[in-house]
Design brief:
The complex is a heterodimer of chains A (about 280) and B (about 1050). Chain A has about 280 residues and is mainly α. Chain A has helices at about 1-20, 40-60, 65-70, 85, 105-125, 130-155, 180-200, 210-230, 250-265. The model of chain A has no long low-confidence stretch (mean pLDDT about 85). Among the domains of chain B are: about 35-115, Carboxypeptidase-like, regulatory domain (Immunoglobulin-like, Sandwich); about 115-245, Beta Complex (Ferric Hydroxamate Uptake Protein, Chain A, domain 1). Helix content of chain B is about 5%, strand content about 45%. Chain B contains twelve helices and 54 strands. The two termini of chain B are about 40 Å apart. Residues about 1-40 of chain B have low confidence and may be disordered. Classes of the chains: A mainly alpha (about 280), B mainly beta (about 1050).
């Protein structure tokens, strides 16, 4: 009896010793929640991309922001009882575009989390050898958001905490604005160029991004940046920056690039091309 | 046998060097050798100082496993191996004696009662210590004292009985556990619960799983110098629970403890009756037309229709314990059932406990303990809000005497439920949680033969906890609409926990003056938790209840599963040294590595040191006879709490649904929490100063302590700029402080004077809790009601100063749109030259109000005469704020509009201007009177007699000299409450009955950590009869 009891006790104990392993108990592997490591798998990258498509809804499905895209053009202007929702984006310059007030705050609030998610996908997926066509979608969205930000607010931070265009792993409560040429030449153009190179001709999913779409945005960005370099209306820029291109090009070079990229897109449109009646 | 083990060690992949644990295993088996010896017979008799025989005295041949016990006559006989042998006589409550055999064959021994205080041993974690040598802050309460209060769990039993340990009721449902705070709260978002250690193994379960009848003693480590041995889990204090074990050499002892009690309503919720409600409605003038089921001549007491008249509480425990010459055992089974005044609500627990110790060789001992319980909580879906808010002028019955399904009030239609209806619906309206838990520990202990005083011990703990909830609500139940579909749900959770400890203890006295005790520990531990849940709508058959959700016709929902695995690996060393029982020092160092922290940040080390000085053992104090014992203690230590949850440092993705085209639905994942590898524990540093005294031949004993605990690196949510990519993150930023004093005194007023004995004990303590720092120099966090310099539990609200009376100046300035009779709150703005306020009252006038009491404590007294004893146990609290959501705005029971029933309050009318509560139908904020929340704050002071118990010991008369011991008692629980402004006004029990986010109509107003009185099961007053029988 004694012996049996002893044996049972010891064998259970031994079992624990053998199977536990000592270092292993200090490792973590979550099984009921997703961590950024999920972006190291194809399904995770697909999920990350889905969220990026989804974030468009949070902006363009947001009534005030959506409205500002109309009232801020030459098709409409503010009326008698208009408040900042109408005035801020108006071309007449009666409002101010702030990161803290509607409707511009919608973009400010949505863009950075999406940029960070995109950086998380780009870093993890690249490290795990996931197809570059998928990573290119994340690059497209990062460039897309930076392009919206730089058009709306001028220079914005490229470093969210862990370094320029890096996935943020070290929360800091301050941030430093980059200049407009930095945002274009370091973020928007390189990401879009990679997207143009790696994105498929035909969309992966309904409404998915393609080579043509990336070319459209690249051309648009070249034009906008070229115009910023020229600055014919003497519009100030924030933060202050010289109107010279760090890559040594001038406005005309960018206009030419825009022309070339657009022509390439028109010639091989893939899923999305110009409508026949254009 | 050895070969098997050798084989095990050479098994490929076993990795011999991997673990210290395995090395220790070798040590364990290297010592596994058995010896044999020859013998002679010695007999004799053991008596006490009055010459009476002592039965059951344990006699051990020193250095061997040979032992016996004395018979009823005090006689014994034992075989001793050599004439050099020494016999050790020991008996509980008596000083042990060692007698050398020499050549005697008959040895008669007198044992003297031990001075209990001096010999008392306290459990200090990874070992025990004589009370006289303790230098940290350790409070001890014996199992017998725990059982003085018939309670379902230990926490309830020790409420108010230990200085510095604040135990608060968080629910009045049967079987509910309590909130235990040792020396205040220190963490804002992490747990403030102390670590519970059951029989040496950290306890992962609920304290309600431990049967109070199994407890031998409870030791509470309060300061960091004592808790540092538990390192990263020590900051909230440690409760060490030791369960009963058999005694080696003792004859079999059977014990039976039982009680049965009747629980009656302590007080109804103070709602208005029919005429009072009619008057209120008239005064409010808002609902001038009665609802379809209402009539001014009806007076329905919905609480009477709902509550059981009384409920039964029963407890039965049977135990057998005893021992052979080389081992001991203890087995026990328990049954506890607590019904409720709410029909179908009850808690049942079956428990089983066993322990065994066996000496295998003179130097080797093994044993195990197992604590198991199955518990069932039923009827917890039943609340009383519906009952309380029903209009008292609504008639529940149709003209034919049958019960209506609903009643219609002016604005609301309410489903009605009564006692009979609820009982009849018990198959269609149920919620039950079944828990099963098993806590097991095994040990092996080796006295290392060639080093005197050195002992190796290994402990293995294996625990499993399971909880399974099922609920079903049939068609139309609880709803005004008869066709509301049925709903059912199931949830499950499991916890697996193992602990492995290897301990080396060296305990020896050199030259009679140097007493040294060294402990070294290596331990590893892992806890795995997982849960799942599902729910369904529209169950096709009532008979299915929640047993087949797959057949539901409606929506099926699968809840998010939860999985958490965490591990802890530790090294600990402790040295306790006493010189001549005068100078005492204890030093500890513990290193903990946790899986919850990021690589590179896993290890943390906790130092502690404490010193003591027993003044009375000094020569220069010898002349003072009034003082028996006087000890001064000082200790310092650092500990932490495990504030970081598993996986919290890894970052988190949240989901976002999207569809590509019309039919391609997908789920997206975006980063919602950044990885934060730097996240760590919250560290508490405590200084503790103590004074222990014993005066007048131990008739007056006590302890006074003063402490300061500073906690830093408190986890706080910190807002981030949008440019960080997430809105906020958690960082180790905040600081809090707890500072306080504790006094506990026990006095013996008479000791068997003419048959009378009278003992009195009380404890008194004050804790000052304050927030020292929030994030980045911020001093206010209004959203969370956290303010630097105030309690963690603070309320941020207007301060009621009275009611606006006719003629009070500036009503229209301070309260535009206000009315006479409305609540007047404090105005903190400026006044112009004419004395006129410059602005209306607004958000800027809100005040910070501290919730914690100024002083808390408890008392107990015992008067004995011959076989009778009368025990009274009470607790009290002075100051602080009691939050009653019944009276405040979140309960929706003090609307003062006449819409639904109202708490019975003295409200303002032009004829009753001295009232406390505002004019009914006055200015409102939402559905409540403006500033209605201020009506829920009360002075929290109270004094409560928890039990009065009268017992009789039959061994003083009927059963004199019998082996059978019998005590019977009658107890009244919760007999009365004094000095409570809340009780005076409401008649209710002034103890809290809910967490801040529960049992109120709007549960999101107060944080969970602030306990409240809400619409929970009503409190009871209990009449209990019980007996303790042993033979």
């Amino acid at each position: 009896m004694k012996r049996i009891h002893l044996n049972i006790t010891l064998s259970i104990w031994l079992g624990m010793v053998v199977f536990s392993g000592c270092k292993k108990i200090l490792e973590e592997e979550p099984r009921s929640l997703f961590t950024p490591d999920y972006f190291k798998t194809v399904t995770g990258v697909n999920g990350g991309l889905t969220a990026m498509y989804g974030h468009l809804r949070n902006m363009y499905g947001q009534a005030y922001y959506y409205n500002s895209l109309i009232t801020g053009t030459d098709e409409a202007t503010w009326g008698k009882d208009a408040d900042g929702n109408f005035k801020d984006m108006d071309c007449s310059g009666v409002g101010s575009i702030l990161s803290t007030s509607y409707p511009s705050s919608v973009l400010w609030g949505e863009a950075f989390p999406n940029i960070n998610t995109a950086s998380g996908v780009i870093e993890n997926a690249s490290a795990a050898g996931i197809a570059s066509s998928l990573v290119a979608e994340a690059r497209f969205f990062r460039a897309f958001d930076y392009f919206l930000l730089v058009q709306t607010f001028g220079g914005v931070p490229l470093d969210l905490g862990a370094g320029p265009l890096k996935f943020n792993t070290s929360p800091v409560r301050t941030s430093v604005r980059n200049t407009v040429p930095e945002v274009y030449t370091k973020a928007v153009f390189p990401d879009l160029l990679t997207a143009v190179a790696d994105l498929p001709v035909a969309a992966r999913v309904t409404g998915g991004v393609t080579k043509t779409l990336a070319r459209l945005y690249l051309a648009k960005a070249y034009l906008t940046y070229g115009w910023w370099l020229q600055n014919p209306n003497n519009i100030p820029t924030y933060p202050a920056a010289n109107r010279t291109d760090p890559d040594g090009h001038d406005a005309n070079w960018y206009f030419q690039q825009a022309y070339d990229v657009s022509t390439a897109a028109i010639e091989s449109p893939g899923s999305y091309g110009l409508v026949d009646t254009y | 046998m050895r070969n098997e083990f050798l084989q095990f060690f050479v098994k490929p992949g076993a990795g011999l060097s991997k673990c210290l644990a395995k090395l220790s295993l070798i040590a364990f088996f290297a010592l596994f050798v058995v010896a044999a010896h020859a013998q002679t017979q010695v007999k004799g008799r053991v008596v006490d100082d009055q010459g009476k025989p002592l039965p059951g005295v344990s006699i051990l041949v020193k250095g061997t496993s040979t032992s016996t016990t004395t018979l009823g006559t005090g006689n014994f006989s034992i075989a001793v191996p050599t004439s050099n042998s020494v016999l050790v006589f020991s008996y509980i409550g008596f000083t042990s004696r060692e007698v050398p055999v020499r050549n005697q064959t008959e040895i008669n021994v007198t044992l003297l009662p031990s001075a209990a205080e001096l010999e008392q041993v306290v459990v200090v974690g990874y070992g025990t210590q004589r009370k006289e040598s303790v230098t940290g802050s350790v409070a001890n309460i014996s199992g017998d004292r725990v059982r003085e209060i018939p309670a379902p769990n230990v926490a309830q039993a020790i409420q108010g009985r230990i200085a510095g340990v604040n135990i608060s009721q968080t629910s009045t449902k049967p079987g509910a556990t309590m909130q235990i705070l040792i020396r205040g709260q220190r963490s804002l978002s992490a747990s403030n619960d102390p670590l519970v250690v059951l029989d040496g193994i950290p306890f992962p379960g609920s304290i309600g799983d431990i049967n109070p009848n199994d407890i031998k003693s409870l030791d509470i480590l309060k300061d960091a110098s004592a808790t540092a041995i538990y390192g990263s889990r020590g900051a909230n204090g440690v409760i060490l629970i030791t369960t009963n074990r058999g005694q080696q050499g003792a004859p079999a002892k059977v014990s039976y403890n039982s009680y049965t009690g009747l629980q009656t309503l302590f007080a109804k919720y103070p709602m208005m009756d029919g005429p009072e409600f009619v008057a209120l409605r008239k005064a409010a003038g808002l609902f001038t037309t009665n609802g379809a089921d209402e009539s001014n001549d009806v007076n329905t007491d919905w609480q009477d229709l709902f509550y059981n008249k009384s409920a039964v509480v029963t407890s039965h425990d049977v135990g057998v314990s005893g021992g052979s010459t080389t081992g001991s055992y203890s087995f026990g089974g328990g049954y506890y059932q607590n019904q409720s005044l709410i029909p179908t609500q009850q808690y049942t627990r079956y428990s089983m406990k066993a322990s065994m110790d066996q000496q295998i060789a003179s130097f080797l001992r093994i044993g195990f303990t197992t604590n198991n319980n199955y518990n069932l909580s039923e009827g917890n879906q039943l609340g009383v809000y519906g009952i309380l808010s029903n209009s008292p002028i609504a008639n529940p019955y149709n003209a034919d005497g049958s019960l209506k399904r609903t009643i219609r009030m002016p604005q609301d239609e309410s489903w009605i439920y009564t006692r009979e209806l609820t009982k009849n619906l018990s198959d269609k309206w149920l919620n039950e949680t079944r828990g099963f838990a098993t806590y097991n520990s095994f040990y092996g202990e080796v006295n290392i033969p060639w080093v005197k005083g050195l002992k190796y011990r290994t402990n293995l703990g294996l625990d499993f906890i399971q909880s399974n909830n099922g609920n079903y609500t049939g068609v139309g139940i609880g709803s005004a609409t008869a066709t509301t579909v049925s709903t059912a749900g199931v949830s499950n959770s499991q916890t697996y926990h193992w602990t492995l400890e290897n301990l080396l203890t060296y305990d020896r006295t050199f030259s009679e003056k140097h007493n040294i005790n060294v402990v070294a520990l290596y331990s590893a531990e892992q806890n795995k938790f997982n849960s799942s849940s599902m729910s369904a709508r529209d169950i096709p058959s009532d008979a299915f209840q929640f047993y087949n959700l797959g057949q539901a016709n409606g929506e099926l929902t699968i809840g998010n599963g939860d999985y958490r695995l965490s591990g802890l690996m530790s090294y600990m060393g402790r040295v306790m040294y006493a010189y001549d029982n005068r100078y005492l020092i204890s030093a500890t160092i513990r290193s903990d590595a946790s899986s919850r922290l990021a690589p590179g940040h896993k290890w943390n080390t906790y130092p502690a040191v404490s010193v003591g000085w027993n003044l009375m053992n000094e020569n220069f104090m010898k002349g003072i006879t009034a003082i028996d014992r006087l000890k001064i203690r000082v200790g310092y230590g650092q500990t932490s709490n495990q504030a970081v949850n598993p996986y919290q440092t890894l970052g988190l993705l949240s989901s976002r649904p999207y569809n590509f085209g019309d039919n391609n639905y997908a789920t997206g994942y975006y980063v919602s929490q950044l990885p934060s590898p730097g996240l760590g524990w919250e560290y508490s540093q405590t200084w503790n100063y103590g004074l222990d005294f014993s005066l007048l031949k131990s008739r007056l004993t006590g302890t006074f302590e003063y402490y300061v605990t500073n906690t830093k690196d408190i986890l706080l949510g910190v807002a981030l700029p949008s440019t960080a990519g997430v809105g906020s993150y958690t960082a180790n930023i905040g600081q809090t402080q707890n500072k306080g004093w504790e006094l506990s005194v026990n006095g013996n007023i008479f000791n068997d004077k003419g048959g009378w004995s009278w003992d009195v004990g009380f404890n008194l303590y004050a804790n000052r809790n304050k927030l020292v720092a929030l994030a980045s120099g911020q001093t206010r966090d209004e959203g969370n009601a956290w303010f630097v310099g105030h309690n963690i539990n603070a309320i941020f609200d207007f301060e009621k100063v009275g009611l606006w009376q006719a003629g009070d100046p500036y009503l229209n300035v301070l309260e535009p749109g206000g009315n006479v009779g409305m609540v007047k709150v404090k105005y903190t703005g400026d006044f112009d030259a004419t004395g006129k306020p410059t602005r209306p009252i607004g958000a800027a006038d809100r005040q910070i109000m501290d919730v914690d009491p100024k002083l808390s404590g408890g008392f107990n007294t015992r008067v004995a005469y011959k076989g009778f004893d009368l025990n009274v146990v009470g607790l009290f609290k002075d100051g602080g704020i009691l939050l009653s959501t019944l009276y405040g705005s979140s309960g929706y029971l003090n609307l003062l509009s006449g819409r639904r029933n109202n708490v019975k309050v003295d409200y303002w009318t032009p004829e009753n201007t001295g009232a406390k509560y505002p004019k009914p139908g006055g200015i409102a904020s939402g559905d409540n009177p403006k500033y209605g929340s201020t009506l829920g704050y009360f002075d929290a002071s109270f004094l409560k007699i928890r039990t009065i118990s009268l017992g009789y010991d039959f061994n003083r008369s009927l059963l004199k000299d019998s082996r059978l011991k019998l005590r019977m008692y009658l107890t009244v629980q919760n007999p009365f409450v004094m000095f409570s402004p809340y009780h005076r006004e409401s008649g209710m029990d002034p103890e809290t009955n809910s967490y801040g986010d529960e049992n109120a109509a709007v549960a999101s107003v107060y944080p969970r950590r602030i306990l409240t009185i809400g619409t929970n099961t009503p409190s009871t007053r209990n009449y209990v009869a019980g007996l303790n029988l042993t033979f």
